[in-house]
Design brief:
CATH class of the largest domain: Alpha Beta
Strand order of the largest sheet: 3-2-1-4-5-10-11
Oligomer: single chain
Order of helices and strands: EHEHEHHEHEHEHEHEHEHHEEHEE
CATH architecture of the largest domain: 3-Layer(aba) Sandwich
Mean pLDDT: 94
Low-confidence stretches: none
Strand content: 15-25%
Radius of gyration: 23 Å
CATH topology of the largest domain: Rossmann fold
Length: 420
């Protein structure tokens, strides 16, 4: 029997380090050529498998794959495509099996967040239901840091570092101008249900009075009266107020402060617009001059200031996925286990996908101060190690050097196309 090939795909919002996980998969698979044939990447995630649009990573040089470690975004393209149940859409599943059979794929590595874990689990269940041998391993990735059963998620540490740095630098700017100009600065960050990214901004402040003065978490219901009173006190005491707000901030009844009715393939509402909403509130009620910014894609693509811890962990979970598959494991996710003791350490573990898929890990209440506007020392102790180290990419002419792969297509073997 010929060696089985592997399928790797990136899913959901990309990060500054997801390509490091890809490098971990590809380089580790190349080290085990006696057991794994080629690694095919799906062009634009699982859609690549459905369309039989595969990329032959063996056409990439060793140096190019190594450069993925320091390149942001998704080198093979990503997607937001939700697989329905086998009963709801059997055609999609039949198509996946046809493509996997045609290309002798026996390993499935899916790199993404909670929804991607669900896809990976469904593919594993599909292979069993349809009698096709396939080992499915989920590789964790999410800037939201909300996957359960893992200490943290690759992608989060670098976003946390970027937000903490941006908060500190912007605060210095506002502080220097507040006497005669801007009094309030608002930074809107990602975070639908979990406030981990907003919490990371708290690392910017080390002494009493340091920014951020207010953090808005999705875990704490927004109280306009309390918020405005806090802003007013901050400006009176410090001359200015820096606010970091998670896009998922909502009122007690669950209504978002800002958002739209539009949803993606997973049913998630389009978020955004919180910063100007808060700014208008501050101007209308308090009369303070303001500025606001939305970190948006900048926070998750900022590879130039990535966390060394994050890069190393992203690579490690990719490499571990291959090793788990070679050990015969299936339907699991590689996890990060925090070591005990004062000195930070970590190792790789595993978790069943049935306990991961479609579940979210929120900020613990003891990570948020009693008034709901800041992080506690417990949160600081948890967050600090995740932003450590500066994993700078190589630079040329003043700009970072990022690799662009050739992404050579694998010849199609099936005649029929597939509409998505």
């Amino acid at each position: 029997m010929p060696k089985k090939n592997a399928f790797y795909a990136q899913s959901g919002g990309v990060t500054a380090v997801i390509n490091a996980s890809a490098a971990g998969v590809i380089e580790t698979a190349r080290e085990h050529r006696s057991q794994i044939g080629k690694v095919y990447a799906g062009r634009n995630g699982i859609i690549g498998a459905l369309r039989e649009d595969l990329i032959d990573t063996s056409k990439e040089s060793k140096a190019a794959i190594r450069q993925l470690v320091s390149t942001p975004s998704g080198a093979f393209g990503s997607c937001r495509h939700k697989l329905q149940s086998l009963e709801q859409n059997p055609a999609e599943y039949q198509r996946l099996i046809e493509v996997f059979k045609a290309h002798n794929i026996g390993y499935f590595f899916y790199n993404g967040g909670g929804d991607s874990a669900d896809t990976c689990l469904k593919v594993s269940q599909l292979s069993q239901a349809m009698g096709y041998p396939l080992q499915a391993i989920h590789i964790p990735k999410t800037i939201d840091n909300d996957l359960p059963l893992t200490d943290n998620c690759p992608g989060f540490g670098s976003v946390a570092k970027y937000i903490a740095i941006s908060t500190r630098e912007a605060a210095l700017d506002v502080a220097s101008m507040c006497e005669t100009s801007t009094k309030v600065f608002i930074l809107e960050v990602m975070g639908r249900h979990a406030g981990w990214i907003a919490a990371a901004a708290g690392l910017a402040g080390e002494r009493e009075g340091d920014a951020p003065h207010i953090i808005l978490f999705p875990e704490i219901a927004f109280d306009q009266k309390k918020f405005l009173a806090k802003v007013k006190r901050c400006v009176k005491k410090h001359g200015y107020c820096v606010i970091v707000a998670s896009e998922g901030a909502h009122y007690k009844d669950g209504t978002l402060l800002a958002g739209s009715s539009q949803t993606d393939a997973f049913g998630h509402h389009q978020l955004g617009g919180l910063a100007p909403t808060l700014a208008t509130m501050v101007k209308t009620e308090l009369g303070f001059k303001y500025h606001w910014a939305v970190a948006d894609y900048l926070q998750r693509s900022a590879r130039h200031i990535a966390s060394t811890t994050d890069v190393e962990q992203a690579y490690a979970v990719g490499a571990a996925a291959v090793k788990f598959a070679l050990q015969g494991k299936n339907a699991i996710m590689a996890t990060i286990i925090r070591g005990k003791g004062k000195r930070y350490s970590w190792s790789i573990g595993e978790a069943s996908l049935e306990k991961v898929a479609n579940r979210e890990k929120m900020m613990p209440r003891n990570f948020i101060t009693r008034d709901g506007f800041a992080i506690t020392e417990q949160a600081r102790e948890y967050l600090q190690p995740l932003i450590r180290g500066e994993a700078y990419p190589d630079y040329s002419k003043g700009l970072p050097k990022y690799v662009r792969l050739k992404n050579v297509a694998v010849p199609r073997k099936l005649k029929a196309g597939f509409d998505i």
